[in-house]
Design goal:
GO terms for molecular function: actin filament binding. Belongs to the FRG1 family. InterPro entries: Actin-crosslinking, FRG1. Pfam families: FRG1. This is Actin-crosslinking protein. The chain is an alpha+beta fold. It has a domain of about 180 residues: Trefoil (Trefoil (Acidic Fibroblast Growth Factor, subunit A)), CATH 2.80.10. Helices cover about 25% and strands about 25% of the residues. It has four helices and 13 strands. The strands form four sheets. Strands 1, 2, 3, 4, 5, 6 and 13 form a seven-stranded antiparallel beta sheet that branches. Strands 7-8 form a two-stranded antiparallel ribbon. The protein has a two-stranded antiparallel ribbon with strand order 9-10. Strand 2 and strand 3 form a beta hairpin. The longest helix has about 30 residues. About 10% of the residues have low confidence.
């Protein structure tokens, strides 16, 4: 078989300029646009540290710099309990992750907590990212759990950003969330610390898109574009938490009061109409 290069059968004339193939510029633009969009999406999904308590929202990763192995707060949906998972505790020394604690990101959904905040409130709610979505709560005895499907005062936490960037969580009883060592060396969360020390300090990571969102909202507030919510709690509950497919359900006594108010209003309107008619007849 001949190894000579196959020549083109297209006729060429002497002096004819060779035309080079040009790529479609539109394809290059589309490709660069898709690449730019992918980079932007990856940047928004990056895990970053909050600079302000208002930025603590959305999917969050909570870790504690315990020694000798740092831990992260996770939720075991099978056993329905909070687990303080130690990084690399069961791995041999050569297989341990050498990444810095501040460079770590969640590797499982159980390590992610979804933080929500009522508009205008300084407190937050922490909900599990797996299972049915249970809220992190603390009772008056300092017992911390995540087994409640509804939020209330015991499910409210006030995040406090410390000078070094770490975060402390204060509950409704003005006590702080902490990592405590129980009998047998088992680590657990408690909520009865009076002051912030090493055990009460956590690193919290949020996604970049939510930090950017909070920053934009703060800029709009300072510019006067967004007004602070002025409705009280009762009006907000009636507006957004009505029963009966959006209807406000009231008691029998309330219904009687409403009927009486309507009747008195109709009587007042009738009396005004009669007075205006008498006046018009007098001047005719």
């Amino acid at each position: 078989m001949s190894t000579d290069k196959v020549r083109s059968t297209k006729l060429k004339f002497k002096g004819e300029k060779h035309k080079r193939k040009r790529k479609n510029e539109g394809d290059d633009e589309d490709r660069s646009g898709r690449r730019r969009k992918l980079e932007d999406d990856q940047e928004l999904e990056a895990w970053v540290f909050p600079d302000d308590p208002t930025q603590i929202r959305g999917p969050s990763f909570i870790i504690h710099p315990s020694d000798p192995s740092p831990i992260c707060v996770t939720f075991d949906s099978t056993r329905n309990r909070i687990i303080l998972h130690c990084f690399d505790r069961d791995k041999p020394e050569e297989e341990k992750d050498k990444a810095s604690l501040l460079e770590r990101v969640p590797t499982e959904v159980s390590q992610v907590w979804v933080i929500t905040r009522v508009a205008g409130a300084s407190t937050i709610n922490l909900r599990t990212g797996v299972g049915e979505g249970k809220f992190l709560s603390c009772d008056k005895h300092g017992l911390v759990s995540a087994d409640r499907e509804a939020r209330g005062p015991q499910e409210e936490w006030t995040p406090v950003i410390l000078p070094d960037g770490m975060v402390a969580f204060q509950n409704i009883y003005e006590k702080y969330l902490s990592v405590d060592e129980a009998a047998g060396g088992v680590l657990q969360l408690r909520g009865d610390s009076e002051e912030v020390s090493f055990a009460e300090r956590f690193w919290v990571k949020i996604q970049s898109r939510y930090k950017k969102e909070a920053t934009e909202e703060e800029k709009k507030k300072k510019a006067g574009i967004v007004e602070e919510p002025s409705g009280d709690e009762a009006s907000v509950n009636r507006m957004y938490q009505a029963w009966g497919a959006g209807r406000s359900v009231v008691s029998g006594t309330d219904k009687q009061e409403i009927k009486r108010a309507k009747k008195e209003g109709r009587l007042a309107e009738a009396m005004l109409d009669r007075r205006s008619k008498l006046k018009s007849d007098r001047f005719c």
